Amino acid sequence: MTEVVSSPCATHTGADSASPCCGDFVARIAEHACEVLQNTPVNAEYRHMIVAAPTDAANVQPGQFFHLACPPGASGTTFLRRPMSVYGADPKLGTVEFLYKVQGAGTRGLAALQPGDTLDALGPLGQGFALPEGARHILLVARGVGLATLAPLAAHAVARGASVTAVLSARSPALVMSAERLRAAGATVHIVTDADGNSDPAQLEALLETLHAQKPFDFLSTCGSNRLLMLLQKLGKAWGVAGQTAIEQHMGCGIGSCYACVRPFREHANSDRLTFRRVCWEGPVFDLQETTSW
Amino acid sequence: MVDLSVKVGALTLANPVMPASGTFADGNARVFDLNCLGAIVTKTITADIREGVPPPRVAEFKDATLFSIGIPSKGADYYVNTTVPFYRRYTPPVVGSISANSADEFGELAARIGASGIAAIEANVSCPNLKKNGKAFGMDPEATFQVISAMKASTGIPVWVKMTPNAGNLVEVALAAQAAGADALVCSNAILAMAIDVETFKPRVANVMGGLTGAATKPILLRMAYQCAQAVEIPVIGCGGISTAEDAIEFMLAGCTAVQIGTANFVSPTAMPRAIEGMRAFCERHGIARIADLIGAMKQHDVINLQEEYVL
Questions:
Q1: Fold of A28-125
Q2: Is B187 a catalytic residue?
Q3: N or C, which terminus of chain A has less Cβ within 10 Å?
Q4: Strand B236-239 vs strand B184-187: parallel, antiparallel, or unpaired?
Q5: Beta bridge pairs of residue B40
Q6: Measured between alpha carbons, how far apart are the two ends of chain B, in Å?
């Protein structure tokens, strides 16, 4: 069962039904009351939650997010919502999936949700990934929780006729997530880990150069690591290949009103001039070269 | 049927609820029909283009937030050419909000945007994040008088004053605003505050100090709105920690003609339509035909007369 939390027009309920208010209004962004279907540990740090969601919510695009009202957890309650990128969504099944690391008061609250509980998810929000027309081979490079954001891009790209190469970086093989999900989506998967000693930037750069030489990439994407961002910026410039990255930031409202979640971006790819942009509204997906490392 | 309309001076609002400046933008129009609102108050602008202060810009507490944004502004031309036309597609009156470096500049900016189709202008003399140590025009009765006088001389539309809770002499500032011709007071802006992350030793907002807002601040801001309403003849618009219909009614009972909802919009972007609906339901439940009858309707407790020698 899902329903949109009521967003009534109150001024015009009752007698004044002929008013111009709300009659034709369609909410593009809503507080969806989503039933939790599953909320299980993936490994020692991460959980995978699946919620039932109406079509409007399940039509969320890769890179977009929901702003979640987290229930009270082991570390108390959170006053503000928490942004959460979408790990998967299926409009036919009416589901939205989240993959999250349990680390703060908000995510501890999420971890306490049981099947049958209700999650208030505001969204879908933000600008998702925009693949260039006719993209033929896209690269996904992700580490840690950044993978959750990039995973839906793989299926999206394959559906548009592109081939996908995903390079997953993690501290140890046990912490590698989603390799099977990405393979099932049609991606070619390479895994590098700190434990195996092949995840450092130099080795990763060599691997990406080899992959690019075998079959050139025409779109690069990354999320979750400053080092990976800088590496892809360098390679994107050298290869002349465009890309995008999804960015995290503490947020207030999630809908562009409060201006709390800004980060500095280059005005243009080669500009030295910086400007603040709202991660929730102009992003969270930004041009790879306009993004500044942190 | 409940009459939800209220009059703020010459301006009649369909209902008493409007957003607090800076907590509302075009994104809200994708969540609910803005025609529901009593008025639309836009984010404060300056005449020039400003980026605002560096992040982090927000810290969070139980039932409160600390924001230090620094009034990023796209300038007066963008406001007149883009912002005002966007909101004028809706029926509620649009209320501008301005900040400036001097009384003269307040007057110039009021003249610049006063003819753009907005119904009133709020003078943000209270943003705690612009001047060093949170000093603002609204801290000083004379400076407030000068700002409002300059605006009244330069525009014919109503001028509202966004008061600061950081002034110890709040009532003096309120009276100075009234004497300068202010058409209404908005009580009040954010409480100057700070927080430090003890792990990093860094302030939790980069600007060190910011404005504390949210539900936890309501009793303080309610007291200030009450004090102002007691002191002035002009309408007072309540603002400070209002999240629900009951909160809004509390401010009206304290003497406020209308209310602004701020931080609650960040927690739930449907806070305002729900508050309006809740106020209508409250009036029906209590047999109140006109919501305006709630303004200043707070009752005192019965006096208990003790023997003279025991009193205090």
A1: Elongation Factor Tu (Ef-tu); domain 3 (2.40.30)
A2: no
A3: N
A4: parallel
A5: B94
A6: 48
Q: Which of A8, A78, A257 sits opposite B265 (nearest CB)?
A: A257
B chain contacts of residue A31, beta-carbon cutoff 8 Å: 268-270
Which of A:208-247 have CB within 8 Å of B?
Answer: none
pLDDT-based confidence at B133, cuts 50/70/90? low
Nearby residues of B116 by Cβ (< 8 Å), 6 or more positions away:
B79, B80, B84, B96
DSSP bridge partners of B121: B96, B159
For chain A, the domains span 28-125, 137-287
Contact assignment for A22 to B35 by CB distance below 8 Å: yes
CATH, range A137-287: 3.40.50.80
Residues on chain A touching B31 (C-beta within 8 angstroms): 7, 27-30, 255
CATH numbers and ranges of domains, chain B = 6-310 (3.20.20.70)
**B192: β partners:** B211
Note whether B35 contacts A252, CB cutoff 8 Å.
no
- Nearest by CB to residue B31, choosing from A30, A259, A275, is A30
Whether residues A8 and B274 touch (CB distance < 8 A) is answered with: yes
- One DSSP character per residue, A30-57 reads EEEEEEEEEEEESSSSEEEEEEE--HHH
A250/B56 Cβ within 8 A:
yes
Instruction: Decide if A17 touches B, using CB distance below 8 A.
Output: no
Structure confidence by residue, pLDDT tens digits, A94-150 = 999 999 999 999 999 999 999 999 999 999 999 999 999 999 999 999 998 888 899
Strands B17-19 and B258-261: parallel
How far apart (Å, rounded) are the C-alpha atoms in residues B14 and B92?
8
| Chain-chain contact of B27 with A255 (C-beta, under 8 angstroms) | yes
- Please state the pTM of the whole predicted model: 0.93
Cα–Cα separations (whole angstroms), residue A249 to A79, A85, B56, B264, B309: 16, 12, 9, 20, 63
